[in-house]
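Many introductory courses stop at the sequence. We go one step further.
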Amino acid sequence: MPRSKDQQKTKAIFDATLSIILREGFSGLRMSEVARKAGLATGTVYIYFENKTELINQLYLVIKRRSTTRIFDESIVGQPFLVSLEKIWHNYLEYNLLKPEEGAFVEQYYRSPFLRKEVIEETDRLLLPIFDLLERGKKERLVSSAPTELLVSQLIGSINELVKWHLNGRIQLDKTMKDQAFQMAWNSIKR
């Protein structure tokens, strides 16, 4: 019977991987360096992850699962469309402000050769709540009839840019500015 994997070791491997990728990029990621930074033997890392590609893809999925769980919290269930949209929008913004290193990794990952079809499919499933909400908004004649992918891109893209500008000190995102940014995002997709 195979042994179960120690969650603390898995977390140490993921933390080390994220740190190395942010500092060195994907090409600088070496399993031996991950092991050293995680305080583990290189062989242990290979017990947990077959190779660099599997490690990177699993790290991405862990980050996406964690972020979508936080972004699509239960408080939006049964709420009016605009209340739900605003909650999701603010949750996404706050998560990205809180975890900028994860956002940077996700952005790099999407432009990398490590992106796999099955990972894209799982990501699509994780994002279903926002797609479903926007489809509901279309049915309620609140949202533009543009393709839902375009609407999601419009909402997410503006948040990603706000976070970048905030992190590099070009703007200071206080409550007033966040509320203004949401209103602009809403204006960009409403009917």
